[in-house]
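User: I'm putting together a teaching handout on how sequence relates to shape, and I'd like one worked example. Could you take Aminoglycoside phosphotransferase family protein from Streptantibioticus parmotrematis, show the sequence you're using, and then write out its predicted structure as tokens right after it?

Assistant: Happy to. First the sequence, then the structure tokens directly below it.
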Amino acid sequence: MASAPRVRLEPPQRLARTVAAWEGEAGREWLAALPGLAREYLERWRLTPERVQQPGGNISMVVLVRAEDGTPAALKLGMVTEETREEHAALAHWDGRGAARLLRADPERGVMLLERLGGDVSLRSLPEAKAMLEAAEVVRRLWVPPAAGHAFTSLADRTAVLAEALASRRAPQLDALVDEALALRERLVADAPEPVLLHGDFHQGNVLSGSRMPWLAIDPKPLVGEPAYDLAWLVRDRLETLAASPAAQAATRRRVNRLADALDLDRERLRGWALFRAVEAGAWALSVGARGDGELLLEFAAWL
């Protein structure tokens, strides 16, 4: 079905800001072509648009649609990057177990038709303790062996790129944390347990309410490696609230211990990956001028 004229297929403001800032001219060109790409796939896959999801993601636009038989779905149009290029493969491998079900895909152009979830209701709508319990149950279902001959990036390779970038962002006030993060990464990679398929960007905001299951994950940046890496963002969820608590360091350590125990993981390995990812993200944020975010992430890393 052709798209209805009343539905504006314009990129949400957040998407336009982040892509232009992160990707420069290539990002602006992709944004300019996005409405036409959406119209093309609405017609090709015979979808009727309802609205563009707001505020949307940082590197993708989601159009809520109806399939030809009336089934609600979500048309996702995303930038193809090293982190996202195998998103379709991960979703196909999970086949709805713990994650949104993939219905159709054109991986070369970053277009997917997905099971529609409750885009306005994530785990962040729950009290923190309950959200962490639900998150643990979801991510446990995602940690499965990858298929033979898979094309997913390894954790060692992905973090080698991050480590190189981190080392290039050294500053006198960061030296001690950067040294610790890089040393931890070397030790963790050298003695890693049996690898599984990882979500890669797992946090409460990437787990939405569903109809066939209460909670399902979205937006994987898949790779293959040890489960502890996948919990690093979950440990720092609701970071502003955590930072405002009277005993933030003790609360952070409790989070690490509780998540490790709930999922039968080594506490020190989880602590190590959480610290590495926080330092890397904090140094990156400082490098692009997001001083508040960067300083908060580095403070969190120091608590670990």
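A couple of points you could highlight for students: The beta strands are 48-52, 60-66, 72-78, 102-106, 111-115, 118-122, 196-198, 207-209, 215-217, 223-225. The radius of gyration is 20 Å.
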